[in-house]
Specification:
Length: about 230
Amino acid sequence: MSLPRVGVTCDLEGSRERVFLRTSYLQAIAAAGGRPLLLPPVIPELAAGYIDGIDGLFLTGGGDIEPSFFNAQPATELYKVVPERDAFELTLTRAALAAGKPILAICRGLQVLNVAAGGDLYQDIGMQVPGALEHSQKEPRGQPTHSLQVMDGTALAAILGPQAQVNSLHHQAVCRVGQGLKVSALAADGIIEALEGEGGGAVIGVQWHPEDLYRSDPRQEALFKYFVDAVLR
Ligand SMILES: [Mn+2]
């Protein structure tokens, strides 16, 4: 049987000389039964054409999205902005949504999913959300540092249950939720930690990094299994 083809977005160096990616994403997809295929963000014009060659889309972590993509001015010092990558991934994501392909979006990927659907972002939680928890953990990536509440009746609740402990490596967050998406998990401070498609569970975005947790937490492993199973259908 051929394995389901999972298109995985890559990061691009500031110098534009190399694409790169944390291999933990690829290990997690393969462990769940998928065949990862890398989608290099070098030429944004090629983005939409990749959709026919993949069965599902996996949006990885990375730097901040250029604020003009959600009609905002830079409000703070931004982190590793690469507008070509933004343009590539936004086009890819809109094409995947239009084609009804399953999407799993991680960290920056959740933010790309939301912006692709017309939503926007807090550019810096510490500056724009008074009283928020620490979401940029200093602890190792594999260590959960905050809890979250999963909304009843969501696809994510069927995977994780009503509560979970997650890692947190983000200084930005979803602000206004994009069209066709709904909130599926919140941190105790109200920061949105997950979104999913309103029409079903084949589109899921999470603000944490399950690829650094799945080896020790079967519920995070189940998130990858859920996605690859959706890709198979
Ligand atoms: Mn967090």
